[in-house]
Amino acid sequence: MAAPLFYQQLFTLDSGLRPLFKTDIELQAMKLMKMLRGALDLLDQPDELEDTLHDLGARYSEYGVRPRHYATVGAALTTMLEKSLGGDFTLETRQAWVALYHLIAATMLNGAAHATFSSAA
């Protein structure tokens, strides 16, 4: 399964992220795959995708996820995909995933910023 590779890479890149994950890592891995599948399923519904990611970013900020963590997650995701897909992880595939992750991260960061602003008001 690809998700354990993601978490292995994530915690190798930043072991300080481990305490943010309160649930069993196998359950967390299933949630990650469900979230990625959901994002892919909503690509043709950009408004719904944006709302979903905005809410997710707000919720993650409450769990302690900070803007600096998004780059680490992106690097771990790219490594996971590269190791999982092997030769099928072409330059074009990499570019598509990187672009998608940038969209996901930017939208989630926007949701986190609005949640922080709203809770400070």
Structural overview:
By secondary structure, the chain is mainly α. It has one domain: Globin-like, CATH 1.10.490. The chain has helices at about 1-15, 25-40, 45-60, 70-85, 90-120. Helix 1 (about 1-15) packs across helix 2 (about 25-40), helix 1 crosses helix 4 and helix 4 runs antiparallel to helix 5 (about 90-120). The longest helix is centred in the last third of the chain and has 30 residues, at about 90-120. The chain is globular, with a radius of gyration of 14 Å. The relative contact order is 0.15.
Q: What topology does this entry show?
A:
Layout: H1 2-13, H2 25-41, H3 46-62, H4 69-85, H5 91-120
Helix pairs in contact: 1-2, 1-4, 3-5, 4-5
**Structure class:** mainly alpha
Overall CATH architecture:
Orthogonal Bundle
Distance between the termini: 43 Å
What is the CATH class name? Mainly Alpha
Low-confidence stretches: none
Following the backbone from N to C, one meets helices and strands in this order, namely HHHHH
Helix content: over 70%
Say which CATH homologous superfamily is assigned: Globins
